[in-house]
Helix-turn-helix domain-containing protein (Amycolatopsis rhizosphaerae), 230 residues
Amino acid sequence: MNTDWSSSVVARARVHAALGEPARLAIVDRLVLGDVSPGELGRELGLSSNLLAHHLKLLEQAGVIERSRSEGDHRRTYLRLKPAALADLAPAEVRTAPRVVFVCTQNSARSQLAAALWKRHSRVPATSAGTDPAPHVHPRAIAAARSHGLSLPRARTKHVDDVMRPRDLVVAVCDNAHEQLGATLPDRLHWSVPDPVRADTDDAFDHTLHELTDRVTRLASAVHSSGETP
């Protein structure tokens, strides 16, 4: 038997088995749109900590989800779908919004790139902001956008308080912003995307752009215009 074929079938069977239970499918449906901590997930789905831990263990063993440590407080753990593990899975939840606002700490890289990508994939308007904006957009972010056919026209950093409107769909694309917005904006999505500025290499920014492309593509299919003027 062809071992490559056999291992591929076994891996796919493991994934299908993991998704064959309603609670685990609900967990994956939630993670299609954004990352979440185990505690938040348990409360949203009404699962006890023991039962949730059991389902998460099986999903991790099947290679469907993974955990990441918060870059913000360094204590929290966030659950996320593994890249390409469920590339063809469509979001079960549909949201409406007049506008999408991507937020990171400095509004110098991740949120700027996410907004630029969004405009390629959706007609719903989008913009970006920061909780503690840097003086300017990072040069490597501009270069990475250009190399992938994106532009950051007249890109400048903005504070979230100067951008947010009541009915915006907010997507925090970093742990710090997610945790800082917790008390003021409880209803939002969160993507735990590592900060490429820490590494400050072209590869780090390209990797960030690749991850954001995957996430934006998934979310864009689940967000429809509310018909309001943004």
The first strand starts at residue 65 and ends at 69. The mean pLDDT is 89. Residues 206 and 221 are 23 Å apart (CA to CA).
